[in-house]
Amino acid sequence: MQFTPALRSEALKVLTLRSLCGTLLAVFAATTAFSALAGVSDTSDPDFDPLFTALSGVMPGQIAAIAFGAVVVSSEYQGNGVRISLTAVPRRGRWFAAKLAVVAVPTLVVGLLTAFAALVAARAGLGGAADGLTAGEQVRGVVGCGLYFTLMALLAAGLTTLFRSGVATLSTLIPFILIVSFVIGDVAGGATDFLPDRAGQVVLHQRYDGSLGPWTGLAVTALWAAAAVLAGAWRLRRRDV
């Protein structure tokens, strides 16, 4: 099977699974709702960052993006459906590329729309506190947020292929982000700035310190996602039959 039919087949799987469409809806709903709530928060803090406040809904939204990437792949391992898929598309690299495409493209589209809606909703609450944001910073935040969601979904997809389990991926990534990175990272600093979530979220800040900038931070997250995808491709080629 050529790549285009394989891509169409994988896209149909996503469209016909309500749980996957619901997960993408959760990305939009959680991010926009939490950003809107953040927009009415106290802006007198000297460390107040209007761009990050407006896009702070990315914190719960990324959980849904990770779940989407994990479930798209893990659905293949329910009832050993991956055998059927690989029988239809014997070129495993081609099948895996199609699978990654149907993770990346919907996440990017939804992520961009979500970031824009979150920014508009939060700015309505922030009022004059957000007047210092330039057009360039807002565009960078929206585009960066969409890319960040996409990279986190691909990271989850790669790990799910490696582990052959969505539960294992979610049990690893979610505690890592909520506990290791969020809690310990604030205390330890240094090397923790290069963790996939902390590095990628630099693009959401108007002001940023440290060795990583907005795009270099996203590049670090992209390296994490690429490593997970390569590890998953190795497992797919070597182990799945």
What gross morphology would you assign? elongated
Please report the distance between the alpha carbons of the first and last residues: 17 Å
Outline the biggest β-sheet: none
Secondary-structure class: mainly alpha
Run of helices and strands: HHHHHHHHHH
What do you see in this structure?
This protein has ten helices and no strands. It has helices at residues 3-16, 18-38, 50-54, 58-74, 81-88, 92-126, 135-163, 166-188, 196-200, 214-238. Helix 7 packs parallel to helix 10 (214-238).
Short structural description:
This protein is mostly helical and 241 residues long.
What structural keywords apply?
241 residues; mainly alpha; 10 helices; elongated
Q: Topology, please?
A:
Layout: H1 3-16, H2 18-38, H3 50-54, H4 58-74, H5 81-88, H6 92-126, H7 135-163, H8 166-188, H9 196-200, H10 214-238
